[in-house]
Amino acid sequence: MENQQRWALSGAQSGIWFAQQLEPNNPIYNTGEYIEIKGNIDLNKFEEALTRAVKEAESLHLHFGEDQSGPYQVMGFADEVPFHFLFLSDQINPEEKALQWMKEDLLRPINLKTDRLFSQALFRVAPDRYFWYQRIHHIVMDAFGFSLLSQRVAKLYTALVQGRTCEVTAFSPFVKLLEEDLGYRASEKFEHDRQFWLER
C-alpha cells in the first residue's frame, strides 16, 4: 500500500474505524443479508454476474491502514472474487445448516487492516431453491449499498441468461462519495448540524 493513493476516511467511516479499534473482536459492524431464490439457477452465469458486480463496486476493494497521521484507505482490486457455493440439498436440515453457516460468518471478527471485508455465498437447499448470502463490513457499505449490489447482480444475470449486453457499470466512483463528504464538512450546513447536536 506504500505507493498507492491514500484517502482520509469519511466522517461515517471514521466513527466505525475508531469504534472497531476499541473492540477489535466485536463483529457488530458485520452486516449481512440473504435472499431466497426459487427456481433453477445457471451457476456459471450467476458467478459471472456476481463477480462483475463486485468488481464494479469500488468500495468493496478498499484496504485500510494507519500511520502517524491516523487511519487511511487505499484502493486495491483483487484478481479473483471469492465465492462459496454449498450444495446442501442432499443433507438433513439443509436450511438450518445454511443459516448456521451464515451466523458463524457474521460472528467472525474482521481485522480492518488485513482481512477481506466481504463474503459471498450461494446455498442450494433444494433442487429448485437457493439462498444467496452476502456479508459486508459496514465501513465500506450500508444497507442502501446492499440493495444496489443485489439489483446489479440480478440485472447482469438476466442479461447473461438472455444473451444481452448490460451497461458498463451502475456505480459511481468511490472518490465521488469522499468528495461529497469533504464538501459537506466544509459547509455551513455542517456547522449548523454540529451546533444542533451539541446543544442536545
Keywords:
200 residues; alpha+beta; 6 helices; 6 strands; 22% strand; globular
Report on the structure:
This protein has 200 residues and is α+β, with helices and mostly antiparallel strands. The protein is 41% helix and 22% strand. It has helices at residues 11-22, 43-56, 94-106, 143-162, 174-185, 188-198, and strands at residues 30-38, 62-67, 70-75, 84-87, 118-126, 129-137. The strands form 2 sheets. The chain has a 4-stranded mixed β-sheet with strand order 1-6-5-4, with helices on one face. A two-stranded antiparallel ribbon has the order 2-3. The mean pLDDT is 88.
Give the neighbour order of strands across the main sheet: 1-6-5-4
Largest sheet: 4 strands, mixed
Distance linking N and C termini: 41 Å
Strand content: 15-25%
Shape: globular
SS field, number of helical segments:
6
Indicate the radius of gyration in whole angstroms: 19 Å
Amount of helix = 40-55%
Summing up helix and strand content along with how strands pair, one would put the structural category as alpha+beta
Gist of the model:
The chain has 200 residues and is an alpha+beta fold. The chain has six helices and six strands.
What's the arrangement of secondary structure elements?
Blueprint: H1 11-22, E1 30-38, H2 43-56, E2 62-67, E3 70-75, E4 84-87, H3 94-106, E5 118-126, E6 129-137, H4 143-162, H5 174-185, H6 188-198
Parallel strand pairs: 4-5
Antiparallel strand pairs: 1-6, 2-3, 5-6
Helix pairs in contact: 2-4
